[in-house]
Amino acid sequence: MKNKNKKVHVFKSEVKELLHLMIHSLYSNKEIFLRELISNSSDAIEKLRFEKLYNPEKYTKKVYVPKIQISIKKTENQIVISDNGIGMTEKEVINNLGTIAKSGTKSFLNQMKNIENKEKNEFIGQFGVGFYSAFIVSEKVSVYTKHASEKTESGILWISEGKGEYSIEEFATQEHGTKIVLSLKTSEQEFLESWKIKQIIKKYSDHISIPIEIDNYDKKTQTISWEKINEAKSLWTQNKNKITKKDYQEFYKYITHDSEKPLTWSHNTVEGNQEYTSLLYIPKKATWDMWHRENKHGLKLYVKHIFIMDEATQFLPNYLRFVKGIIDSQDLPLNISREILQDSTITNVLRKTLTKRILKILNTLSLNKSKKYQKFWNIFGLVIKEGLAEDSENQKNIADLLRFSSIQTESIEQTLSLKKYVNNMVKGQNKIYFLTSDSYQSALNSPHLEIFKEKKIDVLLLSDRIDEWMMNYLTDFNNIKFQSVSKADDSLKELISNENKPDDKNIFDDFIKKTKKILTNKVKDVRITYRLKSTPSIVLTDTNDMSTQMAKIFSSAGQPVPQIKYILEINPTHPLVKKIQKIENESEFSNWINILFEQSVLAEKGTLENPHIFINRINTLLLK
Ligand code: ADP
Ligand code: MG
């Protein structure tokens, strides 16, 4: 019979793209479709429980026994997954199953175009393949659903072959909830085996708190009986001794869609003033949207074991947004909204303790001899650095977690801790030296490092974009001050012994005076320096002035930058300087001094305001 209610819709283009991608890149891990559908059913049931608490008048008062049921219809080539959760209205069906609401989807899809097939599998898994994964194994998917608050005798049937369109029609039903019928592709018949389905559920969904049942048909008695196949107890509410490593790992995969195991985790139940259980995971990989500001990152919130919301961002500071897990509070009210959560004192206390706990987990990991912490730092170091500004209360703990490249690590990989740096300080050194630059290579080759290399004094080499900004917040470590080597610094004088100072100091007095006059408006000061070896001169910024690197960051962000006035330091032992010093012709001398200055600025900034003037000067000299 033809249904005259039937309407055909086309998928939004990003759905089509995602479907195509998924079907062609997830072939090696097809079984996850079951995890995704069960997780949606479980969410739907949790939503209904929650709704019933909030708006009881909208729902029946009948005793509610939530369950998820799976039946296998071998002769029809079908798997049926049904739940008695909240269900969907027609509008919701169209919104939820015909579009992708997730922000950042476009940029995600664009990113996907540039990566290898092998990696796609993992990447798309992290994005959360969700409902559409049904199409990996099905040639047709039918969704029968009815919202629990719906008073009519009909529900909505959504049907699609996953190609470009779907249809929607009404169907008669008394029951609320959702039933998904997967008509399997002929190549996917293995999923019609009951043992196989049981195995997959055990693997991915054992800890789901709602019973999952599978039907067994008894040929003798010709009856169907339902067999519960999962543990059906929330993992975190169970006794720690009973939970295996594997349980924790699978639970992590379930809540994150990550295909890899987590790096580490911590499960705590706290009693007393604030009663709560937390289960926090540190992933191995960053999620695809870690740098998308608009995307939410947070914990799953439960109150008294009832699911309240996903991505509750209020329990973690932003710089710990890579942490995944759940928090189950005994003290928060059940009817809490995001807004109230934001201002609640309970939330604030929890956030503080969870932050401390995570920093402790990381600290423990960092003291461990394994390579785990280094792996963590390589991926999440940049995010941790944000913490120095965001969380002044824990600055010391965050500083302990930092890792750096330095002259002595001789590697772009950031491996050096501040503690180790301090332990390796040379006699008389009372500052932690650092240099910020655009790249590790340019930092390593900077003339600012010459004396440090010679004296074997280590310098931290900072080349992440956030570093310059970070160093504004990180002023000392265990009471030892940080010092930029590209800024004027008197402490250095004491460290550099007098060994290479020539006696003819007066000769230079005159030279410096003349130089200052030539560069009057361009520099803040001109000095003799003994920190250079193979470079004739260098520019520094004054102690309290904006650094070059900071100015670059400002200007690349389109912000106005004050003109930096440099201090020019000249190396009296350099042959070029010795030569210039002897020049008597005033205009020639002046030309040389300007070249010294301009090449120092060029080395420092990588650019010149008037490069053609500099080039003209050089060309004039070349012709001589
Ligand atoms: P996600 O679960 O990450 O939101 P999915 O693609 O898995 O993404 O599901 C999309 C949406 O479809 C869900 O957010 C939910 O609103 C709706 N949905 C899917 N399955 C069900 C179900 N069994 N019952 C009710 N709603 C569902
Ligand atoms: Mg889902």
Radius of gyration: 33 Å
Portion of residues in beta strands equals: 15-25%
Report on the biggest sheet: 9 strands, mixed
Helix/strand/pairing category: alpha+beta
CATH class assignment of the largest domain? Alpha Beta
Question: Distance between termini?
Answer: 98 Å
Structure overview:
The chain is an alpha+beta fold. It folds into 3 domains: 7-228, Histidine kinase-like ATPase, C-terminal domain (Heat Shock Protein 90); 235-385, Ribosomal Protein S5, domain 2, CATH 3.30.230; 497-624, Four Helix Bundle (Hemerythrin (Met), subunit A) (Up-down Bundle). Helices cover 38% and strands 20% of the residues. The strands form 4 sheets. The protein has a 9-stranded mixed β-sheet with strand order 1-6-5-4-7-3-2-8-9. Strands 10-11-14-12-13 form a 5-stranded mixed β-sheet, with helices on both faces. A hairpin with a 7-residue loop joins strand 4 (138-146) and strand 5. Helix 2 packs across helix 7 (194-205). It starts with 6 loop residues before the first strand and ends with a helix. The model has no long low-confidence stretch (mean pLDDT 90).
